[in-house]
Amino acid sequence: MPKLKTLTTRQYVAVSTVLGLLAATGAVALAGPWDSGQRKAERELAGPRVSVGGAHHPDPARTRAPAPAPSAPGVLAARVCCANVPAQQTLAAALDPLLTDPALGSVRTAAVIDTATGRLLYGSGADRAMTPASTVKLATTTAALSVLGPGHRIATTVDATPDGKHLTLVGGGDPTLSKDRLRALADDTVRVLRDRGVTSVDLSYDTSLYEGPEIHPIGINNNIAPVVALMTDEGRVDGSDHGPAPRTGDPAGDTARAFAEMLADRGVTADPGSAPARPAAGSVPVARTYSDPLSALVERALTNSDNDLAEALARQTALAAGEPASFEGAGRAVKAQLDKLRLPVSDAQFADGSGLDRNDKVTAALLATVLARAADQAHPKLRPVLTGLPIAGFSGTLADRYTGSASGTGLVRAKTGTLTGVNTLAGTVVATDGRLLSFAFLASDTASPFSAQPALDRLATALATRKLS
Questions:
Q1: Residue of 16, 36, 71, 137 marked active site
Q2: Which residue in the list 291, 305, 438, 444 is annotated as catalytic?
Q3: Biased-composition ranges for Basic and acidic residues (predicted)?
Q4: Which CATH number covers residue 188?
Q5: pLDDT tens by residue, 48-59
């Protein structure tokens, strides 16, 4: 992908201002996948807004599925402005009253950082470990980019014995493998087999890259498929490409059977068998397909709050770090990579990569610092963490928030987090003096997301509209 260029703060502010004007005039069509970690109440609210495909999938005649946030450098800024240190009292006066909103439940924490200096400008319980819900994806994706780099791609491979009569479809952990890419892989495979005069094969499939339980602790549901190294379209069975959807209980087996049918359509008879197996002795790769670059996968995971992709990225991090590709191994690897970035992880716990597990614990200070590190010119490979953030009123899980006349529309970029009783928001804003701020607001024991989310949005809007110096 093209090399990202860092813009000046003046250019950043100009871009943000344009986004705000576009929002005010309604020039951009809104589309809103719901946060993949949300629960029944939110799904019920979404129901009346759409007419086909269930509560989560808008009618394509009325809206479009959002693409990942643009990876253009328009969301970046140099950290060299703003020599005057803003008065912490300014933020305290703005945020303290908003944090007392009963909609934010019994426990609420906050952190705001000036990314130019790394200074904590505002903190309220900032070091208290809380359940982050899907905002933990900020940690997951940062760790993956740190150890793998933005250009890393995940491979799915076909291995064959020298005589070509035994094939193995080897999963590399790419949940974004599509039917089209699987067909292309079948084309490449058949081309090799024809050169060898092979028209019938034994087909196996290998899922051994991952270890430990396949089923997330919350079980198989519309928010996540079994976490396996081989799957097609994230195990979705309704043709959707994001958001909650029915999932297969056997994504690897389904993929292998689909591949066998594709081989048969091309004149090669194949039996995929009923259980995974490693490649036969002497097998070598004969065909391969690759995912999009990690930079694009990170943007997709954050924009759409993609749980399946987040779990895959956590396991890719584990593999690169020499840990088992399991929930536990991935958790250790993510924490270790963040520690190498000198992030405050002493009280953090990563039970999964997606945030669906309530045993995840992070602080507001950690999330805000993750975002500040992604804005640091010394860490350009972390930029997709910023470019993947949903834009208020425009994209991803913020498409249906900050709408109407909300002054944060187009200015707030943030990752959402939603579980029953947990609502979180972490992202960036450009204050009116041109200062890029990173923030994290975590709320627990909330009664309703429909009151907690607007309360969080008001906090972020206060940052975007506040003059700090």
A1: 137
A2: 305
A3: 37-46
A4: 3.50.80.20
A5: 222 222 223 233
Does residue 275 share a domain with residue 175? yes
Q: How many CA atoms lie within 13 A of 22 on its CB side?
A: 16
Last residue of some domain: 291, 312, 336? 291
Is 106 annotated in the active site? no
pTM score, whole prediction: 0.83
Determine the Cα angle at 76 with ends 73 and 77, to 5°.
Answer: 130
Q: Is 240 a catalytic residue?
A: no
Do 209 and 278 belong to one domain?
Answer: yes
Is residue 282 domain-shared with residue 301, that is, in the same domain?
Answer: no
Does 212 lie in the same domain as 143? no
212 lies in the same domain as 81: no
The tens digit of pLDDT for each residue in 183-223 reads 999 999 999 999 999 999 999 999 999 999 999 999 888 99
Domain boundary among 259, 291, 323: 291
pLDDT in tens, 83-107: 334 448 889 999 999 999 999 999 9
Assess whether 326 carries a catalytic annotation: no
CATH of the domain at 354: 3.40.710.10
Q: Which one of the listed residues 36, 71, 134, 291 is annotated catalytic?
A: 134
Residues in the chain: 469
Tell me, yes or no, whether 469 lies in a domain.
no
d(Cα 451, Cα 449) in Å, to the nearest integer?
5
